[in-house]
Each structure stands twice: as structure tokens, then as C-alpha cells.
Amino acid sequence: MSGGVDVAIIDSGGANLASLQFALDRLGARSIVSSDAAVIAAAPRVLLPGVGAAADAMRRLRATGLDRLIPRLHGPLLGICLGMQLLFEHSTEGHTACLGVLPGRVERLTAAPHLPVPHMGWNTLEQIGDDPLLQGIEPASHLYFVHSYAAAVADSTQATVRYGRALAAVVRRDNFRGVQFHPERSAAAGARILRNFLAL
User: Fold this and answer.
1) Is 184 designated active site?
2) What pLDDT, in 10s, does the model give residues 130-150?
């Protein structure tokens, strides 16, 4: 890609774009934030971050044609938080049709007295698979979660998190991966996840 960019960050309008760029800078990676389909298509790796509502995020992707481009990408793509949820077929948040890269749908978490929604704070992973993205991540590693919706455990699940029940925390299908937590806010474990992604 021109300019020697290592990763393109899709401009999803979220406030976490700067912190994600800082996290990549610390790893020595050159990144660009863009909503330009040509820039995204030419990038060797793509990050799809997201905060806020699924319907709003999909509206932004449709406005730039990225809803059609993203499922056709062949390089490594990592969805973060809402970005991971958008990889599925459907979100019950606003009854939103998503990108359809992964089968299944994302549903709202069920609140309980000891399980407030959103699920917010540090948590550990369970049932960690052997995907290269998770190399060096131990079950005791703490990662930072902020979400009100989640995907059920399925064939695409590479790691789970327990919040009342087991939920998909890391997913993969072919070159597409997603993490429900925020690696850019997850200290050393999050930095390791990003470093692993940059090595894909």
C-alpha cells in the first residue's frame, strides 16, 4: 500500500479511534484512519472498530459502500467490540442487518442483580483456542469489556468470556476475526493481541 501503511482503521465514527492508533504506534505499526473504500481495499490489514449502536454503524458503512467491500476483503480483518458484532448476520439492537461474514445474530445481554448491563470492566477468557491471534494469551489474562450485546458461542468462537453464561469473546471465519473486548484498553494482554494481529 502506498505510504507503507501496515493497517487501515475503518473510520466508524467512534471515540476510540485515537486510542487505537496510539496503541498501534506503540507497537511500531503505521496506521491510517479512513472511510475510503479504495484505501481500505489496498491495505494489508484492516481494523473495524466500533462503539455505539449497530444501526448507526451500519448506516455509516452503507453510506461509503464499505458494507459491500468488507465481506470481500482477503487480508486479515479484526473487528473490535461493536466491530466484531457487525461481522454477524443480524443484531437485535434496532433489528439491524449486519455484514453477514459470520452466521448468527447478536442479542442483548440479560441483566441480573449481580450482572448489570452493560458488561463493563475487566474479565478473563475461557476455552481459549489455538488461533494465532491468541498466541501468548493465558486464561488469567485480563481484558477490558464494555458491551450490552453479545454473540452466542458457536463454531466460529475461538475464546469465550463468562458473564452469567459463556459468550463469544473471540471469533474467526477465514481471514475475518473479531474480539468483543477492547485490546487498545487492555494493557499488556491487549497489546499482545494487536501484535499478533500485525503478524498475521
Assistant:
1) yes
2) 999 999 999 889 999 999 999
